[in-house]
Amino acid sequence: MLLITNSQKVKYFPLKFHLKQNYPNPFKGRTTINYHLPYKTKIRLIVIDFNGKIVEKLVSEEHNAGMYEVEFNSENLPEGIYFYQLIADHHFETKKMILVK
Hints:
The chain is mainly beta. The protein has no helices and nine strands. A hairpin with a 4-residue loop joins β1 and β2 (10-13).
Protein backbone atom coordinates (compact mmCIF):
# COMPACT_ATOMS: atom_id res chain seq x y z
CA MET A 1 0.00 0.00 0.00
CA LEU A 2 1.32 3.43 -0.92
CA LEU A 3 0.98 6.21 1.70
CA ILE A 4 0.73 9.81 0.52
CA THR A 5 0.60 12.64 3.06
CA ASN A 6 0.38 16.40 3.13
CA SER A 7 -0.17 18.78 6.03
CA GLN A 8 -3.91 18.09 6.19
CA LYS A 9 -4.69 14.63 4.78
CA VAL A 10 -3.35 11.11 4.71
CA LYS A 11 -4.32 8.92 1.75
CA TYR A 12 -3.63 5.24 1.20
CA PHE A 13 -3.53 3.91 -2.35
CA PRO A 14 -3.56 0.15 -2.85
CA LEU A 15 -0.84 -1.28 -5.08
CA LYS A 16 -3.03 -4.15 -6.32
CA PHE A 17 -6.63 -5.33 -6.51
CA HIS A 18 -7.80 -6.99 -3.32
CA LEU A 19 -11.15 -8.41 -2.22
CA LYS A 20 -11.28 -8.86 1.55
CA GLN A 21 -13.27 -11.45 3.46
CA ASN A 22 -16.71 -10.19 4.43
CA TYR A 23 -17.43 -9.54 8.10
CA PRO A 24 -19.05 -10.86 10.06
CA ASN A 25 -18.93 -14.31 8.48
CA PRO A 26 -21.12 -16.30 9.08
CA PHE A 27 -23.67 -13.50 9.18
CA LYS A 28 -27.36 -12.80 9.78
CA GLY A 29 -29.10 -10.16 7.70
CA ARG A 30 -26.22 -7.82 6.87
CA THR A 31 -22.51 -8.13 6.19
CA THR A 32 -19.77 -5.78 5.01
CA ILE A 33 -17.52 -6.33 2.00
CA ASN A 34 -14.30 -4.34 1.45
CA TYR A 35 -12.23 -4.13 -1.71
CA HIS A 36 -9.18 -2.20 -2.90
CA LEU A 37 -8.51 -0.77 -6.35
CA PRO A 38 -5.01 0.31 -7.49
CA TYR A 39 -6.26 2.61 -10.26
CA LYS A 40 -9.42 4.08 -11.75
CA THR A 41 -11.44 1.34 -13.43
CA LYS A 42 -14.93 0.00 -14.03
CA ILE A 43 -15.77 -2.78 -11.58
CA ARG A 44 -18.54 -5.25 -10.86
CA LEU A 45 -19.19 -6.67 -7.42
CA ILE A 46 -21.83 -9.40 -7.46
CA VAL A 47 -23.27 -12.01 -5.10
CA ILE A 48 -24.04 -15.47 -6.47
CA ASP A 49 -25.71 -18.50 -4.93
CA PHE A 50 -24.32 -22.02 -4.68
CA ASN A 51 -25.71 -22.82 -8.16
CA GLY A 52 -23.94 -19.87 -9.80
CA LYS A 53 -27.04 -17.66 -10.19
CA ILE A 54 -26.51 -13.93 -9.60
CA VAL A 55 -28.71 -12.93 -6.65
CA GLU A 56 -27.46 -9.35 -6.18
CA LYS A 57 -25.46 -6.78 -8.14
CA LEU A 58 -23.81 -4.66 -5.47
CA VAL A 59 -21.65 -2.41 -7.66
CA SER A 60 -21.42 -1.90 -11.41
CA GLU A 61 -19.64 1.38 -12.11
CA GLU A 62 -16.31 3.12 -12.46
CA HIS A 63 -14.37 3.89 -9.27
CA ASN A 64 -11.19 5.82 -8.60
CA ALA A 65 -8.22 4.13 -6.96
CA GLY A 66 -8.80 3.54 -3.27
CA MET A 67 -10.42 1.40 -0.61
CA TYR A 68 -14.17 0.80 -0.66
CA GLU A 69 -16.79 -0.73 1.60
CA VAL A 70 -20.23 -2.09 0.65
CA GLU A 71 -22.96 -3.40 2.93
CA PHE A 72 -24.88 -6.44 1.68
CA ASN A 73 -28.45 -6.91 2.96
CA SER A 74 -29.58 -10.53 2.63
CA GLU A 75 -33.04 -10.29 4.21
CA ASN A 76 -34.79 -11.83 1.18
CA LEU A 77 -32.41 -14.77 0.75
CA PRO A 78 -32.58 -18.23 2.29
CA GLU A 79 -29.88 -19.54 4.61
CA GLY A 80 -26.90 -21.05 2.85
CA ILE A 81 -23.51 -20.58 1.22
CA TYR A 82 -23.05 -17.65 -1.14
CA PHE A 83 -20.10 -16.26 -3.07
CA TYR A 84 -19.19 -12.69 -3.94
CA GLN A 85 -16.99 -11.70 -6.87
CA LEU A 86 -14.96 -8.66 -7.77
CA ILE A 87 -14.47 -8.28 -11.51
CA ALA A 88 -12.24 -5.47 -12.82
CA ASP A 89 -10.13 -5.29 -15.99
CA HIS A 90 -8.23 -8.59 -16.04
CA HIS A 91 -8.76 -9.21 -12.33
CA PHE A 92 -11.30 -11.73 -11.04
CA GLU A 93 -11.56 -12.69 -7.37
CA THR A 94 -14.16 -14.73 -5.44
CA LYS A 95 -14.80 -15.22 -1.71
CA LYS A 96 -17.26 -17.44 0.16
CA MET A 97 -19.74 -16.25 2.81
CA ILE A 98 -22.27 -18.09 4.93
CA LEU A 99 -25.76 -16.76 5.65
CA VAL A 100 -27.50 -18.09 8.77
CA LYS A 101 -31.06 -17.31 9.84
